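re: that complex we talked abt at group meeting.

here r the seqs, copy pasted straight from the sheet so there may be weird spacing, ignore it
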Amino acid sequence: MTDDLDDFKALMDAATPAPDAERRTKNLKLAQKNFTHNQGSDAAMRPTVKRGSMARMTEGAKSMLSALSHRGALTATTAIAAVALFMIVPQSRDIVVQPLSRSESPAPAPEADSAALEEPVVEAPVVVEEYAAPVRSKAAAPQQGVSGLVAENTARLGVTSGDATHMMVEREVGILPLSDTEAFSSAEANPLKVTSEEPVSTFSIDVDTASYSIVRSSLMRGELPPKDAVRVEEMVNYFPYSYPAPEGDAPFRPTITVTPTPWNEGTQLVHVGIQGALPQIEDGPPLNLVFLIDTSGSMHDFNKLPLLKQSFRLMLSELRDEDEVSIVTYAGSAGQVLEPTAAVERDKILGALDQLEAGGSTAGQAGLQQAYQVAESMSADDEVTRVILATDGDFNVGLSDPDALKDVIAKKRDSGTFLSVLGFGRGNLDDATMQALAQNGNGQAAYIDTLSEAQKVLVDQLSGALFPIANDVKIQVEFNPSQIAEYRLIGYETRALRREDFTNDKVDAGDIGAGHSVTAIYEVTPVGSDAILNDPLRYGAQAVRDGSDEIGFFKLRYKMPGSDQSQLIEQPIAATQDEVSDDVRFSYAIAGFGQLLRGAEYLGNWSYDDAIGLANAARGEDPFGYRAEAATLMRLAQTLSR
Amino acid sequence: MRKKTSDEDLAKAAADGDAEAFATLLQRHYDRVFRLAFRLTGRADQAEDLTQDICAALPIKIAGFRAQAKFTTWLYRVVVNAAEDARRRQASHSRAAAGWGDVEQLRRAEATETAQAMDWLQRAMRSLPPDLQDTLALTLEDEMTHAEAAAVLGVSEGTVSWRMSDIRKRLRALRQEELAP
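got the structure back, here u go
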């Protein structure tokens, strides 16, 4: 019988528009990218130790990726829901009835096809592979007999993703061609050096903390991290320490402590703690912050825009009433979504933040320029103005030429508007560009992979992120061969500099933000100790006792932000044993932990038990709980290593 | 060559990580996904967004595809669930209901004919509870059997048939209501 249902179908068919060709192309591309991204996790199982100033971004990504397969699937549906909601904001996209073209593919489909197919090839070099695929979740979803139920599980919960991961792992590598353009280095632990042969040790500071995140995510997943992913100095530097603060105008102050070694009676540790100055934020100039937020389609992922919103919510609580915030988006929705608003109007800011949704086609707006415009309209004398770019690496900000982009940023920096970059998620991450942008903008590039990481970067250490205090910080230590027979630097393997690089201002090195602390630890063996491992040479020159009881000489070079000229801080290292603070002891516990994870070459019988004991004894105040977490990780590692 | 490969074989290959198979599969079904998304949401822009989300999430989901179901059944299920989640999310916020519940849309529809068509569709859809909306949207797909719709929705075939007769009844009632002066 012909009934209302047939009428309904006819009407519905007529009313159903053809999919937008442009979005079709984009969506297919997005799907393909995500597909590649998913597969990319096991394309190669070597750890990336991509070094240099670009390192942080890619490495942060790895730890995120490791969490992706499960949580990604779980949260995908929520993300989907959020989108539809916010798209209520009328985009005046009229519903066009195109009955005839409805069932046909839109004309530009062939282009879309080729674009989608090419994508993985382009994407491959950027993909930083997951380093520890082998024994991931074995909680494969039980195969269910009823097809509908299987579909339900898959579609709604992603329960089978563990299974899927497992399958992918078994698959042969080779879906993605792994480009050789990425610098992989699995540096060996710094060897023991004989002072009389090589008295000088030079390295760049490293305030990256990515390695700790990697170690944490591995252990939380129930596996030991791959040795090469463990970088002791990044683990040590993950934790905030309160070393003695600098006095006067100095941007930071080194404190050198010589102590017995927990794991070797015959050696000593030379602990160098550098504390960055912390300008009084409360009394500081008002901040003008312009958030330039990437809302392109790729920001959909649970660990991108949703996390970004939560992160900014956290950060907002750190701002003072007189600080001002503005939000500019690029791609998709309109430019400025929040006019400059005093931070005291929390509800208004949060409201604007909530409205943000990823999606829509790329607007091609000059997002960055608009952000700068807004920033300039906000800035007044004695105020700090900063654009904070939050993105997953899709730099469609209106300037396509990276060099032109950098120039603009550098110029704006000189006129007083700085730029920081917050990386979220991964997939089309352009870490090199992010780092370059932030460096040119006098800012930091930080990675936000979890809410607690957001808490750390945007709340606990916000001032460090907003106010860099020194660039290109290099350390050189010369040991006195008459006092010290052997030494080794713990960690910093990939940060080694040549001796002559120290005074060469053209050689790049690490930066320090306000309030940051950096730690370096040497293990030294005094002359005459029975812990000396190298036998003396028969024909080597004997070290002459020169009467000095200095065991070494410490030099540090840094540049003030914006300056090309480095400045020098130097001081002798006395052999006297100082009082050991909790901070120092805790850093030893972490350094020992890191070395245990790397193979404990020099640790003798020192075990996880000792590390846990030391960490617990030195926990101190631990206001953020980082140290407690570290002890938990040590216990996990101990169990896993049995 | 791939054109001739069955959906299910492509889906299995895609689940095993074959990017090309995945691309082929999605291109083959993109428009279908979009049309169903439109019927479920009632708005072109929402359908576009929903489709985008499905595209974004499909690479993860496809890994879980088991050849026990027809690929399209599985895919429709993904779409229906995505729409359902979106709807639930909307309901949990105190915003004007969107999609089939959105009257605003009528005002923006320019062509009168479209407006009339949309008007009727609007009212018809809105008069149905969500499970019937889903069932109707799904069964409007060409060549969709009650059995397949049942598999997609995770209900029995009898339930679908029962719902369809319920929908007919409701549509007829609506029509008569309109015809009455």
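couple things i noticed - Chain A touches chain B through 89 residues (CB under 8 Å). The two ends of chain A are 74 Å apart (CA to CA).
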